[in-house]
Structure of Phenylalanine--tRNA ligase alpha subunit:
Amino acid sequence: MKEKIKQLKNDFFNEIEKISDLTALEKIEIKYLGRKAGELTKILRQLRDLPVTERQEIGVLANQLKKELAQKIREVFQLLKNQASQSAVFDVTVPGLKPTEGHKHLVTQAIEEIVEIFERIGFSRRRYPEVEWEWYAFESLNMPPNHPARDEWETFFIDLKPVGPKGQRILTPHTSSGQVREMEKGQLPIRMINISKCYRRQIDISHVPMFHQFEGLLIDQQVTIADLKGTLDYFVKQFFGSNRRARIRPSHFQFTEPSFEVDVSCGLCDGQGCKMCKAGWLELGGAGMIHPNVLKAGKVDPKKYSGFAFGWGVERCYLMKAGLSIPDIRMLYQNDLRFLNQF
Ligand code: FA5
């Protein structure tokens, strides 16, 4: 037994000299002092089978060795720990890792730019509910229930049946639903720019089910088409570039009379006609002079006040900016960093 203890001691010290990391040290500790199957533990367990005289002598030796091994393990542990912390000293000369810098989404950038342009001529930003009553989106805008014009808005319904005097709840299909809400505040004159999310059951290369519109609304005394045209020209030059022009064409909306479709001259061919625009002009969106019935719905006297409104898609406008050639509006919402990082 004495020989065995001696051999164990030699083996232990040979092995511990060779190790260079804490994992190996832990393995040695388990091998020799492990509670279940440690080599020295086994010897200590065998003591009870020895004759009394031998048991005392071997017991003293084995317990002494146990202390020695434990002491050595502590020393080596400390040594390895010190080495590890020294090698982890912070080296100020090592080049740092540059965190990737994000940026605002293209649509957010466009919204901020649009707001800034209109604020310069006295318009204030508004936001009206995305979950809206039918009444604000249709009836108040001169489209009574079952009017065929409503079909154009391909609306998402929240309620199956009317749930009150304002009809069913819907996801607002256009920002025009904010017109009467703004008038209801009773503060005239009005110069609002309402930018909100809109929803329609549409999806293809130029339509997404969730998009943004910005709606200008101006109500004052003696507002004319010339004021509308001036505002459109101003916006087009500020947003698209000083060489671009706006034009209005007759159109039809239930809530404006007269109504127009607004075009912007093509930035690639300067209105001459090219592959991108065909006839030199790109369609921006609708506009018109507010229908007297809409003013009445908002408790504004049409004999005293008049106004204009326009409503355009933020995404569509952004895609028409000079120098951008984004072939599909859906790319704006696919969250593909290879695309978004280019802007
Ligand atoms: C309207 O929504 C009218 N409320 C605009 C208006 C306001 C007219 C005030 C008169 C006075 P329209 O359905 O054409 O009109 O939509 C306006 C613009 O919204 C479109 O030109 C387009 O730029 C954008 N738009 C419409 N549907 C989608 C869609 N699914 N995805 C992306 N953009 C869309």
In short: Residues 174, 176, 200, 202, 207-208, 211, 213, 215, 253, 256, 285-288, 309-313, 315-316, 329 surround adenosine-5'-[phenylalaninyl-phosphate] (CB under 6 Å). The domain at 106-126+188-340 is CATH 3.30.930.10 (BirA Bifunctional Protein; domain 2). The longest strand covers residues 210-220.
